[in-house]
Design a protein that fits this description.
Shape: globular
Largest sheet: none
Helix content: over 70%
Radius of gyration: 13 Å
Distance between the termini: 28 Å
Oligomer: single chain
Order of helices and strands: HHHH
Strand content: under 5%
């Protein structure tokens, strides 16, 4: 579910950037916090499963899309 929600945020940012812009900082902060805590620690310690690896990639893609909203 989290992966789909994260992907949807990126899609919304592409299609309706004006709607996302007011909450852009909060979204980016939350996604960065996710990447910098449990997900990457588990991946680095080889405790990951394929779902966590895929979620980390989705977060990275979404951050890129958000970066296009307000470079």
């Amino acid at each position: 579910m989290c992966n789909n929600a994260c992907w949807a945020i990126g899609e919304i940012a592409n299609r309706a950037p004006q709607q996302v812009r007011p909450i852009l900082k909060e979204i980016i902060d939350t996604l960065c916090e996710l990447l910098n805590t449990d997900i990457l620690n588990k991946i680095e310690k080889k405790q990951e499963d394929e779902i966590l690896t895929h979620f980390a990639k989705t977060i990275s893609i979404t951050l890129g899309r958000l970066g296009k909203v307000d470079p």
